[in-house]
Amino acid sequence: MKFNVLIVDDEKNIREGLAKALEMDGYGTLLAKDGTDALSVFENNEIDLVISDLKMPNMSGEDLLKKISSSTPSIPVIILTGHGTIEAAVQAMHNGAYDFLTKPVNLDRLSLLVKRALSSRELILQYRVLQEELNKSLGKQKYAKIIGKSNAMKKILEVVEQVASSRASILITGESGVGKELVADAIHNLSNRRDNPFIKVHCAALTESLLESELFGHEKGSFTGAVARKRGRFELAHNGSIFLDEIGDINSAGQVKILRVLQEKTFERVGGEETIEVDVRIIAATNRDLKEEIAQGRFREDLYYRLNVVTILVPPLRERKEDIPILTAAFLKEFSAENNRVIEGIDSKAINALYSYSWPGNIRELRNCIESAVVLAKGNIIEPDDLPPAIYSANEKNYIKINVGMDMAMAEKQIIQATLHSLGGNKSKTAEMLGIGRKTLHRKIEEYGIE
Ligand SMILES: Nc1ncnc2c1ncn2[C@@H]1O[C@H](COP(=O)(O)OP(=O)(O)OP(=O)(O)O)[C@@H](O)[C@H]1O
Ligand SMILES: [Mg+2]
Which domain holds residue 376? Predict the structure, then answer.
């Protein structure tokens, strides 16, 4: 990223001297001889930082600073002051200056100060690029809301588009919080049933006695409390889709009944004689391993095969960490709007912390984490300590201490040990990450006696 610095001073030598030094550091420079001149350069160019003298003809540095810090507070302004005008510099800091430099300017200090002032600017610009990427990806999606650019997510979106308009039953599996319900929403919204009902049933919440009447309805007087006829969820979903969430939690009696609807597309209300026929598309989800449930005799194999015409496995977040920045950008946008906060960027240490954490609660946990960070943030940039301690400290564990003059073998041992640990002992990933072969890694593990 090339940054442009606007240098404002009525003395030509100073302007040009500073410009030369900054250009050597790789910055673009624009020059102005007073405040009025500076303002017009500022308005007509992409300026990332302003360095300005205080005393100048026409418009002074003070007035320029006030104008810039009220119109674009995110642009840092560094003030130049002569000897004996420290009070003026302090006043300028009150008015929003980033820092000040005394003349004659020490070029090393200039270089450091500019670099520091622009580091947050860099974060802001990176964040803007991310927001643009997010807007583009949301613009492309007819069903919106599913965010992700990892190959795993792209594949899921392809499958979703492909199967949406068929009638095939779909089973969505994956850990808690990975976005199974979002995938189900996308399937319904993309299907030609989108204008018909999408009925969601949280199966785990239905007690054994409620399940049947909830799903299939009941006739008046069919049991105590059945004061009127009630239509069940399957009937309500006619011509639309039904989402059977946590299907792995349904008991065997319920499983038999659902199997029958799937096979015959008919059922009777509790206490009713009439056979009701429905056209319903079934989407089911579970975070259980249904194969294992079948092996344990807790889930019917025949139902499994009926549901599982198409399976969509949504992988955990730790296996698609590439999605973290764009998801973070989306949640920052959502929660800063909701809380009336202006968030302009996220510190790179904070991003590293998000990368290092393993996210057992997946995207739901990331979303909650970003919500609390937005609420707790002290400034306009999310800093590492705005994140929950468990997540921030996950990143701390990612550093090891290597002293100058330390034994090479000792350093190597530590690097291998720490990397192995952070990857949960996975040797092939460790070898890949460290850029060495698996055999070499094995040899070193043995040599250094790493557990
Ligand atoms: N790809 C994604 N893009 C944006 N938001 C997402 C994405 N995946 C999940 N979320 C959000 O994360 C939260 C959890 O998602 P969802 O409820 O779909 O998960 P789930 O897999 O059904 O979890 P559970 O098994 O606990 O029911 C929701 O707030 C959802 O909006
Ligand atoms: Mg869910």
Answer: 318-396
Residues for the chain: how many in total? 451
| Long-range contacts, stretch 333-337, CB < 8 angstroms, 24+ apart | 333/131, 333/134, 335/370, 335/371, 335/374, 335/375, 336/374
Q: Are 309 and 168 in contact (CB under 8 A)?
A: yes
Tell me phi and psi for residue 28, to 5 degrees.
Answer: -85, 145
Please write the tens of the pLDDT for every residue from 128-146. 888 888 888 877 776 658 9
Instruction: Print the SS3 string covering 239-291.
Output: CCEEEEECHHHCCHHHHHHHHHHHHHCEEECECCCCEEECCCEEEEEECCCHH
Interatomic CA distance for residues 146 and 326, integer angstroms: 11
Residue 140 lies inside a defined structural domain of this protein:
no
What is the CA(204)–ligand 2 centre distance, in A?
A: 11
What mean pLDDT do residues 62-86 have?
A: 87
Task: Decide if 135 is inside a domain.
Answer: no
The helix (H) or strand (E) run that includes residue 180 is helix 180-190
Single-letter amino acid code for the residue at 277? E
State how many domains the chain has: 4
- φ and ψ at residue 443, rounded to 5 degrees: -60, -45
β-pairing, 310-313 vs 170-173, is parallel
| Ligand that lies nearest to the alpha carbon of residue 333, given by its number in the listed order | 1
CATH of the domain at 390: 1.10.8.60
CB 234 within 8 A of CB 242: yes
Query: Is there a single domain that holds both residue 190 and residue 267?
Result: yes
Q: Which atom of ligand 1 is nearest to the CA of 286?
A: 25
* pLDDT tens digits, 369-403: 999 999 999 988 898 889 998 888 766 666 777 88
User: Are residues 191 and 281 in contact, defined by beta-carbon separation less than 8 angstroms?
Assistant: yes
- Phi and psi at 311, nearest 5°, equal -110, 135
Residue 175 shares a structural domain with residue 305: yes
Amino acid sitting at position 416:
I
Q: Does residue 402 sit within a domain?
A: no
Q: How far apart are CA 71 and CA 67, in angstroms?
A: 6
Residue 186 is assigned to a structural domain of this protein: yes
Atom 24 (ligand 1) nearest CA? 176
CB of residue 182 inside a 6 A radius of ligand 1: yes
Task: Say how many Å lie between the CA of residue 41 and the centre of ligand 2.
Answer: 54
